[in-house]
Amino acid sequence: MFASSLSRRAVLAGAAAVAGLPLLAGQAQAVGSSAYRWRNVVIGGTGFITGVLFHPSVRGLAYARTDIGGAYRWDDRSERWIPLLDHLGWDDWNLLGVEAMAVDPAHPDRLYLACGTYAQSWAGNGAVLRSDDRGATWRRTDLTVKLGANEDGRGAGERLLVDPRDSDTLWLGTRHDGLLKSTDRGATWAPVSGFPATPSATGQGVTLLVAAGRTVHAGWGDGGDANLFRTSDGSTWEAVPGQPSGTAARVPIRAAYDRHARELYVTYADAPGPNGQSDGSVHKLRTGSGEWTEVTPVKPGGTTDDGAADTFGYGGVAVDARRPGTVVVSTNNRWAAVDTLYRSTDGGRSWRSLKDTAVLDVSETPYLEWGEGRPKFGWWIQALALDPYDARHLVYGTGATLYGTRDLRHWAPQIRGLEEASVTQLISPPAGRAHLISGSRDIGVMYHERLTASPAHGMATNPVSGSATGLAQAAGRPAYVVRAGWGEKGNGAYSHDGGRTWAPFAAQPAIARDAPGPIATNADGSVLLWSFVHWDGTRYPAHRSADNGTTWSEIPSFPKGATPVADPADPTLLYAYDTDTGTLLASTDSGRSFTARATGLPSGDSQFELVAAPGRTGDLWLSTKWNGLYRSTDGGGTFTKAQSCWASYTLGFGKPADGAAYPAIYLVGSTEAITAVYRSDDEAKTWVRINDDDHQWGWTGETITGDPRVYGRVYLATNGRGIQYGEPV
User: Fold this and answer.
1) Which residue in the list 67, 86, 92, 567 is annotated as catalytic?
2) For this chain's UniProt record, which GO biological process terms are given (predicted)?
3) For the residues 589-614, what does the mean pLDDT come to?
4) Is 168 a catalytic residue?
């Protein structure tokens, strides 16, 4: 799904395989540019905050990292996060995951990021980005190893550290390639010889790096007799004597050094997390004497009041920079009793739970009520940071937001500017209160009446849906909207008020429970077509309902797993594209049966999209990753190839330009040498690029749509930077 783009030569070679299809007459590859202003549609967070780092020497300066959505700098004056990696383009999508970050206490403007989302064979190598201006500009060093910011253990760390003895020396812990070192401020890297642990192809490798005075400590997650090592001279490494052992201390997750008390606190778990942890502990090391003490607030393994097993690990840890013995730790993967923070002011001899007295205010991001009318304190709490200039300013990350407090009692999301949703569905209605309805992988469906505020009604509920697989609106009846996705009580729902409120289908096909897929409704909303695809790729027969989801019948002639597409003007017409055979199928009986029309179209491509132009019968566009863009004006009987585009990932339509008879077309694809975002006002004869090199957001090939009521406005789904919307300036 996220494989790197091939060269233009390779794509053109693929296009030659369908060269027999006619070209649209008179088309050229002219590409200009148009100035656009880009902003996030506001939801607020929505993804896993894996690390937060306050600068120890500058008041109000902090950084955050995410598993797939880049890194951010906190702007204290405006109280919002500034994205730092939006410049990363299509070919560099793998670098939007930030494995680790580091600052230099002696040089406040220096920032280092270790980037790489996946350590799998199909992903590219990682890179270290280094900045001398707090992330405004970057220099880059490509590594020969892979990093894993979106893999198990992503909430551990930090795995990147500026050496406390020498600002030119940096350390980088990897998952499968041991420990790396740079002596030229990250410009070049080499393996550390003599590091005592042996990496494996499947383990966690180095889980954390932390300085305790002038000594560097490294956590190790691959097992063995020791899992914490240290060097005091930068050359010789040894296992830390007396370190804890056993299941509850199998993997060091995070560490923090109390420089006044000269004590190093380490949190442990039996697995790297964020999932899969059932045991854990907290220990501290007196670095002067070498004495270890267990200071675990609550041992996992008890039971809750209702008899559930209270299993969890420990995650984040932070110490007060000015008050010795004041430390905060977090539990992680504690689903029965819900995760919490424990705070101690006496070096871990006694603790109190901050959750027990917490007052959560999520009025700025109401989706955090999760359809239950009240927010949760959080889950996946591994990022935890304490402001070195304000002992009562504490923040912690969750799988969806970043909570903060200034008094240790009242908490609210500190998330402005940070948007990390992985977006799969977009609809811009032609009428009604909302300009945008969206679906995402982690937070389901959102209804935006205002683009600049998180939806007042939160996420779509009834049922609560955690990941959207389909979203459709009846073109001739915009008040009727349907959705599909993984839900708590049913995987499909409908709305009669344009997506503001929802009701579950009265019934669903049995396969919908395990494999909800894309869904469509015909032009007048009288028919539903639901396709089914399991998360492992297995495809199942589609089903049809003519009574708003009360009863369903299988459609044997519909290609398994295909995305159903409704004709926007004729309720009896629906379409599907069979990617296996390169065949366009159509139904003229409201989806009861499908028959083949055009054949010999591109097949076997890794990404296809069939889109119907609004307000027209039979006007179809076929977007293909390797073979470009095709159009049919006869309901899929014949297609012609657009010469102006040689790679198309997704396209959509918006309000026509003044004087134009055809809708504006928006495209993520390649019309010349690069993959970018384009607009055409002349039916794909010519294109203008509407994003720029500072606004690329990595992988953006999921979906795009224009606004049918505002010319030039476009909504773009990203894989980790939420929904971007652009407008001409």
Assistant:
1) 67
2) polysaccharide catabolic process; xyloglucan metabolic process
3) 94
4) no
